[in-house]
Amino acid sequence: MPNRKSPRSRVTATNSNTRVSTGQLPRRAVARPTPADVPRPANSNTRVGAGLAVRKPAEQVESSSAGRDLSAEAAFEGLRKRMVQNLRDTGITNERVLAAMQQVPRHRFVDEALASRAYENAPLPIGAGQTISQPWIVARMLSAVMGGGTVRRALEVGAGCGYQAALMAQLFPQVVSVERIRVLYDQARERLRSLGITNVQLVFGDGRAGWPAGAPYDAIVVAAAGIAIPEALLQQLTPGSGRLLAPEGSGNSQQLVMIERLTHDNFRRTELEAVRFVPLQSGVKL
What is the pLDDT of residues 166-188, one digit of tens each? Predict the structure, then answer.
């Protein structure tokens, strides 16, 4: 697939290859209780009435709710461990990436109705026509982008729901993540904040332009597919060690591509495997 580049950039390509009833019984006369027969509340948190269950004290309700929450989180943790083991079984070997995926609660980044499916190896809708990528491809891209050496500063193009940014925050000291769709940007910001993640700079803007104010980046991860890698992103890689992972192509014809910036003007391109991502679009959407 042709790669668009400016005259200054030279890219060298390499390759690697889910009634019963028969009548009514006569009613029995029941004497109505006198007011003195009606039980009185034992305290202000207890209510007794005909046909109503006795309500639990507020502190008991809160305790019961907390117990359910702890039980649910324990179940999610078990599912997360299974997900990580499945990643190991399918060839993901970077222990730092696996540890991050064990740490970050993926179910917190999807709609509550989809939480039970959060740890399946499948993409899930997150609204606005976008998806959260399947865990395997996220792990694959993060593992590959870390292979170039120490990553101090990283850029993510396409924050989406914020899940991958949360993973990158566990792996790299400084992360910039750009999202072009306002509703997703707002949701990602709240989710990252709720988890206490402070080393991600979330930017509302056009991801195709990257974020020059934070460049250069040792690692760039693009979570949407363009016909070609934008030149602006290539120029924001650190010369000599910068590495970019991005899907390239359209529709059903996409390849995961790794670009390494060898010198200021020379780049090496390696095609990895077939993938499928949402399109990389320009501009912003309010």
Answer: 999 999 999 999 999 999 999 99
* Helices 58-89, 135-145: crossing angle, 10 deg rounding: 60
Measuring CA to CA, which residue among 219, 271, 212 is closest to residue 244? 219
Domains, the chain, with CATH or none: 123-274 (3.40.50.150)
Question: Which one of 44, 65, 133, 282 is the catalytic residue?
Answer: 133
For the chain, how many residues are written? 286
Helix (H, G, I), strand (E, B) or coil at 131: strand
Please tell me the distance from the alpha carbon of residue 99 to that of residue 118, in angstroms, as a whole number.
17
Please name which of 107, 211, 210 lies closest in space to residue 161, comparing C-alpha atoms: 107
Give the span between the Cα atoms of 282 and 165, in whole angstroms.
20
**Interval 136-145: pLDDT, tens:** 999 999 999 9
Residue 105: how many CB atoms within 10 A of its CB? 18
Q: Please confirm, yes or no, whether 133 is among the known catalytic residues.
A: yes
Q: Are 57 and 45 in contact (CB under 8 A)?
A: yes
For the entire predicted model, the pTM comes to 0.77
